[in-house]
Design a protein that fits this description.
four-stranded antiparallel β-sheet; 26% strand; 2 domains; 159 residues; Jelly Rolls; alpha+beta
Length: 159
């Protein structure tokens, strides 16, 4: 595993890039964005030392779903290739377990967000059935649906 240092604002990988490796954050913070650099830019999460990102893209060879940007000077990550992951299995099973725990936590959060979105949609259908929706309720439902849509769009992968 090769350690790489990044300056604040430096892009580690871009949305749409090939997902052929993952990253282990050794120091610093990384912002994960959808639509980075556009008017639709959205910060999905901030990951810190001890976190991993990009593992799903590496596993399923899908393009990156988001852009990762260093948020501090000296942000240090180890890039792990598929071969490097095999080495981790042999040499550091505890680290592999940590990766699996983080994936599980992300999946659990995504599932909870999905359930919340379904409940919100269900509430919307019930309100529409009664056709008695005031502007405040409509705004609240619209805001929640937009929030869940954004969360679900980036929550599963983190690139």
């Amino acid at each position: 595993m090769e350690l790489k240092k990044y300056k604040k604002g430096e892009v580690i990988f871009r949305q749409g890039d090939a997902g052929n490796s993952m990253f282990d954050i050794h120091w610093g913070r990384i912002g994960v964005y959808s639509n980075y650099g556009t008017e639709r830019e959205k910060l999905l999460t901030v990951l810190e030392s001890g976190a991993f990102l990009g593992e799903m893209g590496m596993i399923d060879h899908a393009p990156r779903s988001a852009t990762a940007v260093a948020m501090e000077n000296g942000t240090t990550v180890a890039e792990i290739t598929e071969e490097g992951l095999g080495e981790l299995f042999r040499e550091s099973p505890a680290k592999v377990l940590l990766i699996m725990q983080q994936l599980s936590a992300r999946l659990r959060k995504l599932t909870n967000d999905y359930m919340d979105a379904c409940q919100t949609a269900s509430g919307l259908v019930k309100v529409e059935e009664h056709e008695t929706m005031d502007a405040e309720t409509l705004t609240e439902i619209r805001n929640r649906v937009e929030h869940y849509a954004e969360e679900l769009a980036g929550a599963a992968d983190f690139a």
